[in-house]
Specification:
Number of strands: 2
Largest sheet: 2 strands, antiparallel
Order of helices and strands: HHHHEEHH
Oligomer: single chain
Radius of gyration: 58 Å
Strand content: under 5%
Distance between the termini: 180 Å
Helix content: 55-70%
Number of helices: 6
Shape: elongated
């Protein structure tokens, strides 16, 4: 086994030094590569095109002109802001979140608008009154008939005519 074969084996095992890797790179860049090593030529050609890695220059932090964050000042200040926010939240009326004072349920439909409920109630009372008048009409008529059929009223005229005839006959 020649020296290049040994270097290749060590390279793939991860045992080569930087100097040995440079020698392998030079070998594969040259024109005297043996036919049994040509399959590795493209691998080492890619390595020859690699850039050298350099770390970016170290930056030193600039001296800040800002004052440091004062936690002792911010804790009471944030508490005061939170208290004001809660006070505003609980004292402001939320009419769109409040439930109405009443709910009218008609045929399964919830009516929360006072005007609509009042109009509906008026309409229902009017219809109920109309129904009551219609249903009591026979009772009223019967009452009128019984008043008209009072025996004294009916026979008053008959009694008068009988007494008139009796006086005429005498």
């Amino acid at each position: 086994m020649n020296e290049i074969d040994k270097l290749l084996n060590d390279y793939f095992e991860g045992l080569t030094s930087i100097e040995e890797e440079k020698r392998l790179k030079q070998y594969f860049e040259s024109d005297r590569v043996k036919p049994e090593h040509r399959m590795y030529k493209t691998l080492f050609a890619a390595f020859s095109q690699e850039r050298e890695w350099t770390s970016p220059p170290a930056r030193l932090p600039r001296e800040s002109k800002r004052k440091p964050f004062n936690l002792k000042l911010w804790i009471p200040l944030s508490g005061a802001v939170a208290a004001c926010g809660l006070l505003l939240f609980f004292t402001t009326p939320f009419s769109h979140f409040q439930k109405p004072d009443y709910v009218v349920i008609v045929n399964g439909r919830h009516i929360t608008n006072a005007r609509e409920a009042r109009c509906y109630a008026d309409r229902m009372f009017f219809e109920a009154e109309k129904e009551m008048k219609e249903s009591f009409r026979p009772v009223i008529r019967a009452r009128q008939i019984t008043q008209n059929m009072d025996a004294d009223k009916i026979f008053e005229g008959v009694h008068k005519s009988i007494t008139d005839r009796q006086t005429q006959e005498k």
